[in-house]
Amino acid sequence: MRQWSLFFYFCCTFVFLCILPILVAQQDLCKNEADISAFHQINQNHQQDPTHNPDFDTMLSNCLKQQVIPTPDYVSWCCQTTMKISQPCASCCGWATNCVVANCKWPCTFQSADACQNCFVQYCTPGYNTCVGYDPDLQ
Fold it and tell me: Mean pLDDT throughout 6-15?
């Protein structure tokens, strides 16, 4: 009986952490004027003084690192307040949290920052870009 309960737990956890985040990614949540302006301001500040003004990736990474096991709600709130973006747009940061927890726990916890970044790029960037409405082919 215990084997079945462990199997059920594993299957539910896998679906929740690995499959569900992929299926529920929203689209184009950051394409309003206020969010676009906020992202431009972040980039402009970073270009003027990179030492004191982090870029977007660093800001998201800092929000992810503030908890031992980051929760989507906390990371969304952190992104919203630090980046000055809307709640729907910040929910993409929450989506990224689910993706990191599902796919990048090992490299982000026990390996280098580069390994974590590479994992994020491989597994989470496409879905994150869809969520925020970023198309690298158009840039």
Answer: 44
**Domain residue spans of the chain:** 53-132
> From CA 64, how far away is CA 57, in angstroms rounded?
11
The pTM is what? 0.72
Residue/partner pairs of 81-87 with CB below 8 Å, 24 or more apart? 83/38, 83/39, 83/42, 83/56, 83/59, 84/38, 84/41, 85/30, 85/34, 85/35, 85/38, 85/39, 86/29, 86/30, 86/32, 86/34, 86/35
Rounded CA separation 4/11 (Å) = 10
Query: What's the pLDDT at 25?
Result: 53
